[in-house]
Structure formats: structure tokens, C-alpha cells
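Many introductory courses stop at the sequence. We go one step further.
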Amino acid sequence: MHAAQIRDRGYTVLPSAYAPPAVARLRAALEREYEAAGRPVPVATGHIADKGTHTAATAAGFAVSRLLSARPEVAPDLLVPAVVEVLRAVLGSDMHLELAGGLLSDPRRPFFKWHNHLGGIDDRRWQDRRDYPRGAHCQRILMLLYLEPLDPDAGSLLVLPRRMGDPVEAPHPIERQRWEGQVEITAPVGSAVLLDEATWHAALPQRRAGLRMVLGLYFAAATAPRPAGLDRSLVALPTNVALLASVLPPPEHSIAPP
């Protein structure tokens, strides 16, 4: 069902895929990164303010890249079989993880305009060029794991459904909050939202006080073009977590693409 939904509408939701204890541990690890950076204003306007080698304040919020290297304690909780099963059904049994990171924001982040993640970690290249690649098959999926309820108070996720092979250009101005045909997604804490890389989505502003925490993981088919921004530390990541080990990139990904 979930694999078919990704192909037919560009996304699927696995409600409460992660148990509360795992969510609490993942949330604590992400907050420790924020504390280590001095709890800065999480949102940068007009630029990216570096807070360290793997963290930065961005327009989306306080971003933590290379999460597994920075916080190896998250490894046992990062993946669950139900999610990996869906990913393999769409991307193939030899799909792999390209990046695992986290994002913290608060009510100071305004409406986060419409965007997609064509090219995965290299998505800015396509957005800047406006020269979008086309394909009838899914090559990459972004997983958003919500470490709190996804509801209007936290800032709902907006998604524009699209069938695989549909045009990938933005059908409306990306700053416009409402697009015809949009779906507003709400889900319980611990839910995973899987988005095809070409699926346009946006986030409404947060209304309640406190931090909004989300993990973001990119997964790619073995045939997908290798992005320049791939987290190559994943290739040799030491782990005894079998499920995680099964999705780490192959050895050739340790070398930067030409």
C-alpha cells in the first residue's frame, strides 16, 4: 500500500512508526547538539550562519548534518523495519542511505515556502538552474521523522500530490501559501512521512512555543546519480545495528564523484 502511494501520489505516511521511547532518545540527542552550539536563534535569514563543522542555522532551522557521526548513540533507533521495507519496495533491495540529519525550529520560522528535493543533498543545484531532470521512476526518497505530533500548532506539512512521471516544475509561485490540490498532513508523534524527491511540499508556521524537531534522511536507488554532497562518512560507519548496516552506501561512494 505505502509503495503504491508513493508511486501514485508522491508521498505516504506511516503513523506512529517509531515507539515513544525511541522518539524520546532521538529527540534528546538532537537537543544535545543544539545545547552544544549554545542554543542559537535557529533560523537564519538571507544566509547560512555556521555553528560548527556539522551544524548551521538555516532558513529551515538549526540543521544538524552527519547525525550518525556526531551522535552515534542514535544508531539503534534511527530505522525501523516497516519503513525500510517500504523504501526497498520502491527503490530496490540495494537502495542505500545518503544522509541522516536533524532540524530544529521554533515560532520564529515563517511559512517555509514550497520546495522539493530533486537531486537529494544537491537539490539547490536544480532549484537554482530551473533545469529539472525528468524520469518516470522514483530514484530517491526523503524520510521526515516527526519527533512530536505533526499538527497545526506545530506547523502542518503541506504536500502537492503528483504521480510518478508527472511534470516536476512548480505549478504556482513557491511563496504562495495555498496551492490548488494541496494536502495538509497531520500525524501523531513518531510518524514517518516518505516523499519522492520531486514531490513539492511546504511547512506552515509553528503556533505553539518551544522547539519543533524533525529528522531527515535521504535514501537513493543504486542507479541514482551520486550527489556531490553525499555523507561519505556513512560508508565506513562502525555499527553493530544490522538494519542500519544493511543500508549504508557501498565502498565506491567513499570517493567523490567526478
